[in-house]
Write a structure and sequence with these properties.
The complex is a heterotrimer of chains A (293), B (243) and C (331). With 293 residues, chain A is mainly α. Chain A is 75% helix and 3% strand. Chain A has a domain at 20-122 and 144-222. Chain C has one domain (4-237). Chain C has a two-stranded antiparallel ribbon. The chains are: A mainly alpha (293), B alpha/beta (243), C mainly alpha (331). Chains B and C meet through helix 2, helix 3 and helix 5 of B and helix 7, helix 8 and helix 14 of C. Bound molecules: adenosine-5'-triphosphate and magnesium ion. The site of magnesium ion has 4 residues of chain B, from helix 1.
Amino acid sequence: MADAAVEALTTFALLVAGGLLTGLVFALVALGLTLVYGVMDVVNFAHGEFLMLAMYATLGLALLGIGPLVGLPLVAAALFLFGIVVYRIFIRRLLAGPPEATVFGTFGLLVLIQGAAQALFSSDYLSVPNRPLQGTLHLGPIALAQSALVEGAGALVLTALVFAFVEYTETGRAMRAVAEDRVAATLMGINVQRINALAFGIGAACVGAAGALLMLSYPVYPTVGSQFALTAFVVVALGGFGSIQGALVAALLVGLLEVLGGFYLSPELKMVPVYLAYLVVVLLRPQGLLGRR
Amino acid sequence: MTPLLEVRGLSKRFGSVRALDGVDFDAAQGELTGLIGPNGAGKSTAFGCIAGAMRPSGGSIRFASQEIAGLAYHRVARLGVGRTYQIVQTFADMTVLESVTTGALLRHPRVADARAHAEELLAFTGLAAKRDRLGRMLTIADKKRLEVARALATEPKLLLLDEVMAGLTPAECRDAVALLRRILERGVTVVMVEHVMEVLMPIAHHVVVIAAGKTIFSGAPAEAVRDPGVVAAYLGPPLEAAS
Amino acid sequence: MSPRPHLIALAAIVVLGLLYAFGSKDAVTLDLVFTLFLYATLGQSWNWISGYAGNISFGHAIFFGCGAYAAALCTNAGLSPWLAVPAGALVAAALALVTGFPTLALRGHYFSIATIAVGALVDTYVRTQGWLGMANGFELPIKNGLGWLQFSDKGPYVALALGLFALVQLATLALERSRLGYYLRALRANHAAAASVGIDERRWKLIAFTSCATFAALAGVLYAQYTLFVDPPSTLALSISIDIALIGVVGGIGTLWGPLVGASVYVLLAKEVALRLGGSGKGYDLVIYGAIICLIAAWRPHGIVGSIIDALRRRRGAADVVSVQNPAEAA
Ligand SMILES: Nc1ncnc2c1ncn2[C@@H]1O[C@H](COP(=O)(O)OP(=O)(O)OP(=O)(O)O)[C@@H](O)[C@H]1O
Ligand SMILES: [Mg+2]
């Protein structure tokens, strides 16, 4: 009897730990999305495809002998540049059109990148050779995969870095000013185009880093981005579009719900509590958990 | 006769900001009531609460002897309150005729009837020549005029006009005043927010002044400009009081 | 504007389509034409709520699925799939009512994400229900004849798809001239201003949503009878919803002919090119289709038909300005 209770509790603790670690990775992915939304009111539906590109890039480096953790800054930098280029030649044009143009433009980008990945890399599942960190770490009765721990910790550090950048640097302040009121920011002499491009680049760099971390435990294939992106959309909407703190809270919540739902319901149903939570929250608070009206 | 609109103790908070803090005023049937006050006094917020666009935090709004505070926006419109916006809210992708027809559909569910009424109103408001222009292509003056026509199309008993003359040239202002007189002749009761006193003086039957969310004056237009409280609210307190 | 040109165009399409449906023996192109009109119907259905009313949905396939599953269930139970026509439409309408009531007043992306959530929940539900065939779906038994809505060749299917499209097109033409049509466009343009003229957003959007859900269900019935197989990925998955939405956008949202044009681009260009390049699954079709969407979003954001309308209007607008500047007329 008591044994059963202890076991149930241990399982639960294990799940909570796993859920929070997953949530931290979601937070990093969602951070990029919400940053872009906050600054320029664009939901980048190709965000997951950026993640997929980052995972392929990590794989490519690994094949050259550069492991995911060493490769991380390289991949993040590459995605940063990629984001800036995409902004300069494409997103900027979308912003001049009606609001739905950004929705469908980024969707087109999603289709395009996914198709290109399929054409170039085929639909096979590919993993990093000789993955590092395959062991488990024991904390009392709780055993956690080292890779999950490193992913969670890495995501936490990077999220904190981006958050600090937005909160405490001059450029970050400019970004928040643009998010607050584009016209006023322009009048204050802020170059909105530059800030937009920067935000888009940082958003892409977030998934660049997340993609490198995820290669520790996931294979990559052309549609891998979709599942993460879908979760990230829910996270960002749940937290309130544009709210960084909201996205962080929601990411942890979604990570927990997913892991707990996957265990106590069944793996196929793991997203059910997540979607239900989203629907319940927006019905009660149409602007999400921490969103502004 | 009871006034068409009776506002009592109306309050509205936005977080910690008290935009309205006990506003009282009446609008008598068939009259034009001027609502004035310094920037940020709460005039637009009062309109929002009366029209049902925002839910008041407290107080009562009686329209045609019925309590309407907190009623849904579209229900208030249905009861007979029309309004224009200080920052124009036109239907950007609809033509002038379509926009006004949309308003007329409230009382005339058949599109052909609504259209006929809309055409009449376009003639009445002087927009007939621009009937096929898109809302977003109009000048500010025409957008404001379009909002008046659209509101009139719902055949309101009470019309709330929020700074319809702001930004107009003197000639456009004269047109607008003439239009206002014609609206009053139709028997529509008007409450109007207006900054330019010279415009308001000759046409208003009654003036209400609010400052910092409170009613500070209610009476004849000529008295308002002589009232020390009103003058202080506009120009700031006299120097000796401030020190 | 008079509906006459639209009616003439539609009649011409129907006549030509029927001649083709019963004249051609080329199974591959007949299949393309069937898909074209099916998708045009779905795109137009989506256009009601997302184009005219402005609530961009990424969950429209669930209504398509209602029809498809209703047909599959009826046929397997030995009932005529004609019964699935009202049954599927009814279930779709009920689903639209239940899901639309709480979500239709959500703004912008909050609504879109909610439709993704609802779609995923419906998808998951179907995958867990034995009577709905779980994740595997099920086949429909072969029973030829008009009573069983099954035919040995593709001609009649093309004719039915064409008929359904024509019906939905007529309904949309009527919508544009109705109170509902005016109200949806007003709500899309500015919901607050719309409320200020007495428009009850929830009521009118629910009417539109339930109506267009039934159109999608009818398309679903026809689809199931055509392929004789239904499963979640082919009838109600997110990817189908996205295809439907993209068709609406490529053609031009909120326009009468946008869905047909969008479906033509999707079917004839993306699918045809994919066939020429060695079949789909290699990603070339996606690359081309994605590039088309990107180009349209960036350079023709009102879609193909929307851009044509804009251009026509600009021409007329220019003429307008000239006439106002003419002092004789201005006086
Ligand atoms: N949606 C809102 N959220 C927060 N504060 C608001 C909001 N709307 C108005 N306020 C605040 O309420 C106060 C009253 O604003 P309101 O627009 O009603 O003033 P007003 O008298 O119409 O001013 P003006 O002459 O400039 O139009 C102001 O301090 C304003 O900043
Ligand atoms: Mg104001």
